[in-house]
Amino acid sequence: MKIYISVDMEGITGLVDHTHVDSSKHNYERSRMIMTDEANEVITTAFEMGAKEVIVNDSHSKMNNLLIERLHPETQLISGDVKPFSMVQGLDGTFDGAIFTGYHARAGQKGVMTHSMIFGVRNMYINDVPIGELGLNAYVAGYFGVPVIMVAGDDCVAKEAEQLIPNVTTAVVKEAISRSAAKSLTPAKAGQLLREKTAQAIKNRHLVKPLTPPERPLLSIEFTNYGEAEWAALMPGAEIIPNTTMVRFQAKDILEAYQAMLVMVELAMRTTFC
Fold first, then answer.
1. Is 72 a catalytic residue?
2. What's the number of CA atoms in the CB half-sphere (13 Å) around residue 185?
3. How confident is the model at residue 58 (pLDDT cuts 50, 70, 90)?
4. Which of 13, 60, 94, 253 is 20 to 30 A from 88 via CA?
5. What keywords is this UniProt entry annotated with (predicted)?
């Protein structure tokens, strides 16, 4: 058995605002230790449940947050930036299941530190269906025939996952009070929950079907201002929908749509606000 794990940061227990997830802020170093230990609960359980290989992809910001020296010794870690497939780098059809931990709900929704890739995105759509990081990453997994068997984070991302992926196992380590406040489990209790849920997810992985992406998906991204849309539309094949801040791109498959999204949001981040 081979398991893929993508680890984001906003959905980790006890982390509630930008001071926890920004490497320049005072809470970051302790937060990355909590993130690493939480990821390790999932990793260790996967090995205990019979996994012969576990690949972990650091999926937050510059993607160099996880402390490799604290991980299970048999773990293989994908770390650093730039990655052609970002949060799902290294995922392919050889895996028996994917686990997303430390995840958050999509932009515009209730939840702790909700967003979709960058804070300049108001909404993302695949064929006019709203989608966030969770959904896009699950579609890439589905393209390769890999089911997302577990999602861990706050209660809001759990609901998003359950609506998107039938029979997925969810692990709620905190409940959102606002976008920057939550009622969290302690790391010890979160670790116990993650071990239980990981074991359950692996045991029941046959009940989860891959999330099959649509053929020739239409990617649309709604930005918060017109300048961001102008930058994103510089990507060949992209165009602004008139009188909106929405940029669309007709992709040949979900892999091209995913990479188009990465390019568009990177371009949009060049926008200044004055």
1. no
2. 21
3. very high
4. 13
5. Metal-binding, Zinc
